[in-house]
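ARCHIVE CARD
Drawer: 12
Card no.: 0347
Subject: one protein chain, sequence and derived structure
Cross-reference: see card 0346
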Amino acid sequence: HVRCFDVRGACGGWVSAMWLAQALIETEACRRIIVVNAEFPMRKGGAITPKLFSLSSAEELAWRFPAFTLGEGVVATVVDSDPDNRWSFTDITRNNYWDLCTVTPPWQTECIAKSTRVAMDGLCIFTSYGAELRKHGAPLTFEVFRRSGIDPNAVDILFTHSSSAKDWSNAASIVKLSDKIFDVYSTFGNVVSAAVPLAMAQAVKDGVLTRGMRVAVWV
């Protein structure tokens, strides 16, 4: 008697699923929801391993380096109703740079005709231009924080995407939350959509996150 379906949103998958979960609960379509994130990027014969670990030139690092930072993890988040403590979501989505992080399957070969930055190592292989993603993503990061209206003084703990400990630490410093950030990158690497819930689980385990704290999530 449980409805089950997939939500695919790459790095933002957990946030998208939580946004959907809140809507389903508030409309009373569902009473309780479990969001499961399963990230297995290093499976043999997949989009990364072992092909991307055989470098033939330093230039290949431009679109391969992010693959070397990925970790694996499975996390389950249980969502229930709490009218007195609602989540607030702020989102910006732009498609200007869609080709900076891709896995191009055979039925999307038209993408290759549109851009010279996809399928750099072949179809179904991960391609990610980390430096360009940082360049174009950083302004959006600060814009979405500004739009959220979050008061840094009202935040007890900050959870971010685990794409880079340095980048997110610097970002948190700029918005005056450097002392509130909880990082898991140094331990687990970039666990993609599982990053935030995994960090929350680790923070609970470490006694850093407790019931009643005010939480900010920045992906």
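Annotation on reverse: The radius of gyration is 18 Å. Strands lie at 33-39, 73-79, 101-103, 126-128, 157-160, 181-182, 215-218.
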